[in-house]
Amino acid sequence: MKKQLFIDGGWVAADGYRPLFSPYSGEQIAEIAVAGAAEVDRAIQAADQARPVMARLPAHERATILERLSALIREKSDEAARLIALEAAKPLKTARLEVERTVMTYKFSAEEARRIHGETIPMDAAPGGEDRVAYTLRQPLGVVAAITPFNFPMNLVAHKVGPAIAAGNTVVLKPAGQTPLSALFLAELLKQAGLPDGALNVVTGSGSVIGDRLVTDDRVKAVTFTGSPEIGAAIRNKAGLKKVTLELGSNSALIIDQGVDVDSMASRAVTGAFSYSGQVCISIQRIYVHERLYDEFVMKFAAHAETLKIGDPLSAETDVSALISSGDADRTMQWIGEAVKRGASVAAGNRREGNIVYPTVLLNVDPLCSVSCREAFAPVVMINRVGSMEEGVREVNRSRYGLQAGIYTENIRTALAAAEALEVGGVMINDIPTFRVDHMPYGGVKESGVGREGVKYAVEHMTEMKLVCFKK
Ligand code: NAP
Description:
By secondary structure, the protein is α/β, with parallel strands linked by helices.
């Protein structure tokens, strides 16, 4: 399977191609075009030329295209889930959930396209403002560059492409090197759905070559990036006055108060820690448990973790499969080793086969260890004891990241206090930090990012407000 670039509504050959391998089996699954500077330029030019076409497209037509796209993905959901499983080693079960969410994200985008509006301004509220009628418009920005990570190759692309089209923009999309197939699949479906040529262009190849050109080209008006904090920070430094949204990493935490029913939440916490091998930006990496419940929670959590089925992502039963690369598996095992050396004990896992790292549970981890203070992005969770919820909140806030946090408590005062004190973009009360539905505002503070996604919020970011003022 040889995959070309998608530019100006058609497939375009590149000078070079590189093999794409399955992270699980190591087999070659495709050959992917490597875009050079000339192809990136062509993609930006196509997006720039399609700007007026998209800006003129009425809201109902943009909505209809997105509705059709959503329906097409639903029709092809088996194929879509298999693609994700193949290129990302995401177990089919989890890949199917991603496809369902992608269908919803485009549905929300279709709905949002119909309600992009401004407001009227009471100009006479200020002396000198009398005898005026004023209102605001929200207008498309033009060309949006979307740069996406490997871990949700369909839905995180949807979180950028959906709102961009809803708002009447055009897009140049650079998907992650390991997961281009889902993005190219989308390009085909959007064409079938009736998107004008040039409104979506997909360029595959080197992240730094394509990324640098997209981020520094004057025709690109906004950059929306999801990925690691290091690359996010570099993009912001290069982007000049462009609008920039950054959805970055985290070491998300869960706090468990005394008095909660451990049986009902231990298995949910296991899902939050080990879904897609922990390669989820809001995966549970740190758990702080009240000392009264600590032993019971650890026992039940580790027992659930041991029941997860390990294996081939394409098998319907698998819960946990390979990490995205052997380098990530090496790093994870090193981090586990470091924690053990510094006094942590192992309640489950600490084993590797090929690129699969078994779900690993570490207890009493020194907060300065990498598994605590850096982003693991791997199936490793630490569980530490705290004497109070305040101590739990302090531990959560010691992080340089702040995406989402969860707290289980039966005490409304504790819940309200934690909701205020936690330094994160979203607080889940009586749920895991890994909870997300696609229309809620989503994004981080500190090194977890800048700006919010969730379709409506991304549309705000991808439009410019204009004031129109009539003197009567
Ligand atoms: P990554 O290595 O930062 O890559 C993300 C994207 O950036 C890829 O498309 C990559 O291309 C591209 N890229 C590489 N170098 C670049 C450069 N110099 N300029 C511009 N773009 C460049 O991240 P990842 O490993 O794919 O994903 C994991 C990270 O994403 C984790 O940190 C995770 O927490 C974060 N994440 C955050 C959220 C959120 O919503 N907050 C959601 C999911 C994931 P190549 O792949 O070709 O190098």
